[in-house]
Amino acid sequence: MKREIAITAIVGAAILVSACAAQADRRQPAGSPPSISSDEALLAARRAWAKPDPAQLEAAARQVARDHPLADYPPFWRLSLKLRGPLNAAQAAELDGEVAGMLSRQEGSVIGEMLRREWLLNLGRRGEWQTFEAQLARYSRRDDVQINCLAWSSPQLRNPPSRAELEQVLMAPRDLPDTCNLLLEQLVRQGRLGPDAARRRLLRALEWGYPATIKPAADLMGIEPAALQAALAKPAPESAFSGRREVALIALTLLARNDPDAAARRLEAGVASLRDEDKLFLWSQIAAGGMRRLAPDSLRWTQRAVQAPVSDDTLNWMTRAALRAQNWQLVGALIDRMSEEGRRDPAWVYWRARALRAEGRLADSDWLLRSIADGFHFYGQLAAEDLGRLTTLPAQIGRAHV
Fold first, then answer.
1. In this structure, are residues 303 and 330 in contact, taking their beta carbons and an 8 Å threshold?
2. What is the pTM of this model?
3. Band of pLDDT at residue 393, cut at 50, 70 and 90
4. Which of 93, 125, 190, 321 gives 20 to 30 Å between its CA and that of 312?
5. Res 339 pLDDT > 50
6. What is the mean pLDDT of the chain?
């Protein structure tokens, strides 16, 4: 019955839309361009911005009513396209004036912050660091990695980041924006992140596992493009495993992600260029790849990689393999190797407590359980139950339902 009502409603709506369109066509003077609603014009303008097509954007923007709730977006899209394009000195000065004018009208709004971000990227590319610093001070998003990397590359930087802050951003197992890749290249040349910075970045990129992430790190290490392409191929040719050490590392890591059993067999058969530290890292990737597929050998591979210098992302998968086998000693050892932030995750606090309980360290286990038992989340409830408490609603929620 509900389905019949829904179909009737859809058909009725379609008939109504068709009738309105026909009526609009009758009102439209012959030979004039078809008129569209402000909503349709706004969508057309956004599509033109995404292409990008400035001329189409201008045409669509002219058909958005001034009193439309989203009427400020087309001017923002128009300026953002200009900010991304090449500019001579006169065009840049004129555009800076336009942007500053719109920001004065949009200060504190979502559009204002988006426009300021686009302007910051443009100013950084142009090397206009004085204006960049002034606008950065008014930018609210302190966690914007792309903007932060650009700011840290400024020659006029007043408050340089610590090495720990740089490491946290640049050595994270994820895609880095172009501004961060450029900053990393600059810091590596200057030796500010240590002699092994390029290699560590390659390892984090390999943990992330995507060619687009691996390529900048490989370029940083001076890996030849042809050799890199061979390592990224599916399947990789034999030359990828018999050549340069880093090339073999890339090829085997990607194989571990796609076929951990094959990667394990290849590693056990021997790869001449690899060192012990490379093999340790590779076993961690084979273990993580195996656990993603619930491979029976995931625990055995994990046991071979306990001391691998890897991020929390890989340690999370390895710990799941240990949990699946209820190997509590290994669970504890792997959680202890996570970062401080990783160990604070309620899931790992809970499982560390369970590992301690399995070792007979009941007081330490209860202390950890109490640290999360008041949290209104799944592991908080499990911890409360392990401590013998009843699960209760938070006071604020309880009052709302009285």
1. yes
2. 0.81
3. low
4. 190
5. yes
6. 88
